[in-house]
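User: Can you fold this complex?
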Amino acid sequence: MLKSLGRVLSVLFICSTIFGQSTSPVMLGFSSDSTSAQTALEAKFDSSLNPNNLRDWMKRMSSRPHHIGSAYNKENADFIASQFRAWGYDTKLEEFQVLFPTPKTRLVEMTAPEKFKLELQETEMKEDATSGQLREQLPSYNAYSIDGDVTAPLVYVNYGVPSDYDELERRGVDVHGKIVISRYGGSWRGIKPKVAAEHGAVGCIIYSDPRNDGYYQGDVYPKGSWRSENGVQRGSVMDMPLYPGDPLTKGIGASKNAKRIEIKNAETLTKIPVLPISYADALPLLRNLDGAVVPESWRGALPITYHFGNKTPTVHLKLEFNWNTVSIYDVIAKMTGSERPDQWIIRGNHRDAWVNGADDPTSGQVAMMEEARAIAELAKSGWRPKRTIVFAAWDGEEEGLLGSTEWVEEHAEELSKKAAVYINTDSNGRGFLGIGGSHTLEKFMNEVAKSVPDPQTKISVWERARAEQAINGSPTAKREAMDRADLRISPLGSGSDFTPFLQHLGIASLNVGFGGEDGGGSYHSIYDSYDHYTKFGDPGFAYGIALSKVCGHTTLRLANADTLPFEFSNLAETLNGYATEVTKLTDTMRDDTRTLNQQISSGMLKAVQDPTETYVMPTEKSAVPFVNFAPLQNSIARLNDSVKNYQATAKVRKVSSAALDEALYKTERALTRSEGLPRRDWFRHAIYAPGFYTGYGVKTMPGIREAIEQRDWKEAGEQIRVVAEVIDALATEIDKAAELLVK
Amino acid sequence: MLKSLGRVLSVLFICSTIFGQSTSPVMLGFSSDSTSAQTALEAKFDSSLNPNNLRDWMKRMSSRPHHIGSAYNKENADFIASQFRAWGYDTKLEEFQVLFPTPKTRLVEMTAPEKFKLELQETEMKEDATSGQLREQLPSYNAYSIDGDVTAPLVYVNYGVPSDYDELERRGVDVHGKIVISRYGGSWRGIKPKVAAEHGAVGCIIYSDPRNDGYYQGDVYPKGSWRSENGVQRGSVMDMPLYPGDPLTKGIGASKNAKRIEIKNAETLTKIPVLPISYADALPLLRNLDGAVVPESWRGALPITYHFGNKTPTVHLKLEFNWNTVSIYDVIAKMTGSERPDQWIIRGNHRDAWVNGADDPTSGQVAMMEEARAIAELAKSGWRPKRTIVFAAWDGEEEGLLGSTEWVEEHAEELSKKAAVYINTDSNGRGFLGIGGSHTLEKFMNEVAKSVPDPQTKISVWERARAEQAINGSPTAKREAMDRADLRISPLGSGSDFTPFLQHLGIASLNVGFGGEDGGGSYHSIYDSYDHYTKFGDPGFAYGIALSKVCGHTTLRLANADTLPFEFSNLAETLNGYATEVTKLTDTMRDDTRTLNQQISSGMLKAVQDPTETYVMPTEKSAVPFVNFAPLQNSIARLNDSVKNYQATAKVRKVSSAALDEALYKTERALTRSEGLPRRDWFRHAIYAPGFYTGYGVKTMPGIREAIEQRDWKEAGEQIRVVAEVIDALATEIDKAAELLVK
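Assistant: Here's the predicted assembly.
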């Protein structure tokens, strides 16, 4: 489901390319001896990886549409389970029952100035073998849109994010009672109908503009990878920033007999009907929009002048869904640890797709399967992991992280105790390594990334990622690529199955993938196919194997380490960075508010407007107060002391114990609060969350940051204290771990 | 000819809107008494201005095509002259004979992958009354292209500026022997064939991309103002940065018997054939380009994926011209000064057009005529200017500033003595005041701008321009809008008739106009018509009248002032700013060179390239040395002393004398050198010049700046000394003026 991975950043200039080999003499969490053994194990693991397996499995699993509830989805589940079983894993299917609406009626027509009915149909291409499987394909739609039948004038709202509505307001365009048309991009798609409904719109159409995903980006399919004129991006519009998973069973596993709320009470369904369309379908609608010309940043790549609309055209949007409940099946496969079986290293990738899903998710799924097979090979030759390894092939990710969320909710108690780390992957392709995750694992992942060669350049995937930052990064990223010891890993928002682990239960998580040289344009369409993927995604599956190596090494090191390789100095530095960011955010808002108010009161803002165009003068905003960030700063100062103390102690006392491991991995739990975030208690992590108005996009220190963004200074002050308490609790946990070292 | 005026910048926060009226109690160059008289005179002048005159004259003069050599061009000259005569001016036509090629053959065809012949024809529109005058219209072409007949593969070169060829080189695309296609924009058009020829191309096609000038910008004509699919931008491609004016009579007036060089020796003709086309004509060519996809900054708004090209398509370009000599006619009208008749205030606007030219140049021409009429009215009631006022309606500006350049060259000796200030206008439209010019007149023009109300907002045009900077300017402009006493006026490059005055003879010059709310898209096409202008340009001619006021007040104050209102502190500050810029330029280049060399030597630059795409690794550049800017800094320090001394003396000694006036206006002469700039001796001004590789775009301290840009450190050092000497000479002239104050 995740569209693009955040890219890792940068690194120390005293780097491997200059001073020799990249791997440290001793791996984090290992002794000198155990490092040698682990190095040999990883070499053996690497040597058994075979790209042909990835190719064969992808070809098989993507050969037919396999969305949830479909026959082929179950067949894939059984196939994956049979493989895991054959390799020796303790494997089962775990079933949940989830709400899954599918289209009964999809109608969009322009009713004025002329009558015109949209096609709403992706077309078969002879160059794409599976594109003609019409009978089994889910039609293009947005899952968890409500039913609706509305006729109203159309308004173009750009990306449909809150700032776009600010612009509409300034330009005197009211979307009340209107249908909005938004282009994909700029936010996660579910934000668009949510914000539209908040502003009084009665319907929402989302289309793929060729500027963002079509000929402007590159040649279209089948000549190139990009979306052709009839391609449509399906996708969920469930309000996942509230809670993911089955809409009817928030917080509990959607087992057969789980207590369910009524559909009409499900908060995560949209408030208005919403449908995605292609740019071929969007063109006649957009061409007929009246009103003023939109600002430059709103313009797409269709050969028209983009207008706001207001009265013309009028559009009729009618949607009816079958509100069915279907079964989903997670494949769960375990290899029990020899020494610390109650410490789980969980490795997951979803397996369901919108249609054939070669890239999303099969490219990641097959890499994971190959890891599992190679680890099983190691086990056959006598090795056993010290800790338990759990592989998970999730179902229902596309609709809203259904499979992972229900499983996590169902097993919350056990996972809270046992889950040490969750490692997620999703789509994967040719290009650069990207890692997101908990910053307690940042240093560890830098070591892992240095142990895997890049298939194209032969330098390590870490070095190539570093070069990317040094050459193409932001000014900060460029500087850090030269100055900082470790590449930064991105904080996690949402968009794939790490969310319930990290943000609901506080399980340290990772999300890993390659990309950037794999084109784009097949996302959630019928063209996300084996033909497309093997032409543009990762033709030789070399990056699939690279992913197997990165995640395999990650899993094996976590499973085998003498002590789990958590490290706190990078986290402390990162938290300090976030604290600086939110502080600066208020400073910037204060300056901006002062400037805007001055522009209004001086009459200058009015003076520069073109009097022949509508412009609604904004009102002055109340000044931004100075906020007390001291509790946050104090907690970070205390954290730094605790981290230094732990590091100093760990240097002289080499202890390996289950208790120490548990103390280490439970530090992530300390970053959660059972009260959750304001207005969304399912999200319990105080440092990482998807943005309430960005969707997948992360908000770090979300309680503080979103209160500031919403100009709620009282809540900002409260949330500063909350986050400070959480960081204090983390420091306490680290102190406890330090005590375990000297016991 | 000039496409857009540089916008003025900003101003003191202690401004008129807050503390009361904006005009100083005493005007610069006037006493308290003479200020009162002048204020009354300007009020009388303003009250006699009549927008209906502008409308009537525009309707008449734009009713038929009137390019040089055409019957209607001569008719307009006679009409204008008859008006000036009727108003009482001493009026004559001055005739020159100039080289003027017109098309005999224009052929562009795609020869492979399929045969396709381009239309090369703008189409009649029923909404535009003059668009069907096919018989009298100049076909779309670029004047001073050489003849040529070439067939070759096509390569897309973006804007065709030097940095675009750097990109082509990195991507392994060689334009040697190819025809290039460039979009308009990014530079003056004449740069495109010049740089293409330098890189070995054999032909050049220039087209208007809808991104820059078409539906991406706004609705196309006739619904909106913007260029429709068949619109073509004509224009000169003469190498004006070498020298403007008749190509055969560099430096001398092109009188009938002037000594002429042979056409084949004319340096300012292009080296390769070049033709402009519409985006409808460009589309099939661009659609067929092969090769890699171009970078994002190269992409236009046509509904295609933009490629570099290399082998496909092949194009046949055939151009033949009639290399005729035609007569041009400047209308020169004088009102002799009562006290200082040998001090001339010259006010000019061209009158020739590419086709009907309602906007370019008639909108400025009619405003100037109305000024002349209103000044004549004042004279009828007994008033006479102290100094001589000269009005000039230039011919042949479009082809290369022919009329103004030949007149200036013909009368160079007299002008060097007598010309105090030249005030230029060109196209004008609804919007914001823009002023470019000599910085010795910056403070004066700020006063003038405060004396004219904006037609739409009723605040002064100065205040509206300031608001525009404060709201929409660059960060620097925004800051200065609040902090600096005066709005900055832009340094002058080229693109209109000020060039020979300022840059050849060192006559302090101004260029004034309104714009920014007048749309665009008719530039140099058959749609630059009365219908287009009165719908989009300045429907009620209110900004025509505003221009009459700004330029009328400017002319009247310069003509009447006790002492010419030159002021040197703003110039000194501006020169210091330029010195800082060129110093920083070397620092930036040094850092960039160091970074690039490091990226190459570390292998990082290579590591981030997609190995499936062509990328030619750049070679390391030699390090940028530290350059001795001390002579420049010392000269500016000395200048500051001279300016302070002059100001202190002027404060206590109020002297009015012809000798002082002459000393003041000849300070601009001190900024010129008879040797001219390196490799282009016609351009004699050491501070302002059009860029050798930008065309119209200004390069300040051009000798220094362009040497640095070309990495010629030896020449940079030499030019620093040259500019320092020029600034020293200026200081000496200011010292002399100060002496005249105490005599």
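The first helix of chain A runs from residue 16 to 19. The longest strand of chain A covers residues 90-112.
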